[in-house]
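Much of our argument rests on the idea that a fold can be written as discrete symbols. In the encoding step, the backbone of a single protein was reduced to a row of integers, each denoting a local shape. We regard such an encoding as a compact summary of how the chain folds. The record that follows shows the chain in one-letter code together with its fold in token form:
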Amino acid sequence: MFEAVLLSLIAGLATGLGGLIGILIKPGNKTTGAILGFASGVMITLAFLDLVMPALATAGYFIVIIGFGLGAFLMFGVDNFIPHMYRHEKEKGMLKSRNLKTGMLVAIGIAIHNFPEGIAVGAGYAHAPQFGIIIAIAIALHNIPEGIVTVIPLISAGVKKKKALAISLFSGIVEPLGAIIALTFLNNITGFVPFGLAFAGGVMAFLTLDELIPMCKIKSNKNLTSIGIIIGCLSVMTLSAIFGI
């Protein structure tokens, strides 16, 4: 339990790392786009290669279809009712309301999005610690660019740098709660582990298709995005080979 929660905490706090990078380095659109492309390749490959496929081999199509669908549609529901930072990126890169209250609402939205990510880490770890490690790495890679594109519009909207960084950090601390809930449930009912893996796959597939890839189109050119995605896919395959899963 401790190791899985720690992994999910590290993955969640990667949002704060991204925020720090956004404040100190302020990476350009091409660099950010390449990072987003890489994260997209990691997330989508992990979702199917290391989550859906093992669940399919263990439990069959019915459980996987239900689990994957619930994971994806849960994220769809959350994203539909809780405005996410990427919505604001489409509005000339700035928040409409220039105050800390709006910034905190954004942080709460991101935190709610991070909760299912913690479930994904916990579900992977319940299946095998190696899975939990790889999922945590993938989530962290997703959260770093998310932190970057969170703080820059906040600062542009007049929020102080320290407060913008605090907002990005706050949004990541919710992630371990998802891991705790997933581990508590799956450790007591081990037959649901394949369902948990499929659920995590649905969460990560939605994050990739709804957040990362659309942001790639905003932040970078097509070639850099494609190269980043391919390198991300190859990285997951390499990690899977190294960990033997």
